[in-house]
Amino acid sequence: MSIDALWQDCLEDIREEIDEQDYMLWFLPLQAVVSSDALTLYAPNVHVKDHVVSQFAATIDRILSRRSPAHALKITSGAPVKPSAPDQPAVPVQPDEEKSFSLSPSFTIENFVPGKSNELAVAAVKQIVERPGVSYNPLFIIGDSGLGKTHLMQAAGHAISKQLPNVIYVPSERFVAEMVKALQCGEIDAFKSKYRNADALLIDDVQFFSKKLRTQEEFFHAFNALTESGKQVILTSDKFPQELEGLEGRLKTRFSYGLTVSIDPPDLETRVAILKTKSEQAALDLPEDVAFFIASNIQSNVRELEGALRKVMANAHFLQATIDVPFAKEALRELISMQQRLVTIDKIQRTIASHFNIKVSDIKSKKRARGIARPRQMSMYLSKELSNKSLMEIGEYHGGRDHTTVIHACRQVEKLLQDNSEFYEDYHIVKRLLG
To answer: Quick one: average pLDDT of 244-256?
Structure first.
């Protein structure tokens, strides 16, 4: 059995028996080296070693004995040494270098293309940077991946940093990792001081705090310290605060104290404006008809839109070709084909109407009879699951309903899928019909 296989097998068993936070705190930092008769675990310092020995050695030894009775367990601290060939010197294992997160120079408000899909978020950021910590605190920005949440957050950070020196931007996963390291090294006071004394704190993708109770506890206190002292907090997520599962109620409540704004997929005109802006930054004169062609076919998010533009530009550079619509169509053939395979809401509604023997107009109507309400809820749920439309757009397709109605419908469907076998069967039949 290989080194990685033996220890990874043990880790799988350990993870099933202990708390997730304990697993992250005390087992992820360990490095393993296997000899013919021993598994040696190297802790990064004596503090971690002593804790693992006192709290988990018996569990590890029991699992190791079950996995490989021939191996004894040893736990020590310091840098492990990789086994070497007979004529090669032993090589110390080098720890991964920490990544440094800072504000991206290109993520400024000047480089952000405004449109109907993000106008409220842009307006909120512009007002916040005039009076950090006063106007809206916290600012909670919601949107799917690739729509510009991070760009807009960092744009606020750039503007605030011109007034205040200590602006901290950190992805939520890095916040967790820093806290884990601080606990392991006995430096939690320094960690607390760093985040509680920021002039502005920007945390990306707070949905990753889910189920990490120790992290939520520390962030709760940091959040309170900052907002109570008038320091600006900006958060991003892919869900509304009340939709975040595995997050304490007191955090959800505080996230909702300030202003919550959403960024939806950009409309056609905004997508064209984004393409024109990006092409100008690349010193490319993108023809108007080409911009409209790309924008009409790439609708999911800004990141994919920019990727499509880069592909057209790269192909033109390599082939020394002129960019026109036929050239763009050929360059993006595979990408456009994939986009066209996305299920449309119209198709979802027609399929559901046919299956339940109702009319599409019933799905869009205000009728509340169960025989219509449940198919309508299923239609909203499948639209969210299978199409690339925003909650607002899904609501519009279903009789002009708002996004909160769509959220409620999706929750009802999730409950019905668990509790109602007939609905469950209907749902999977419709999903198979949609391919």
So the answer is: 89
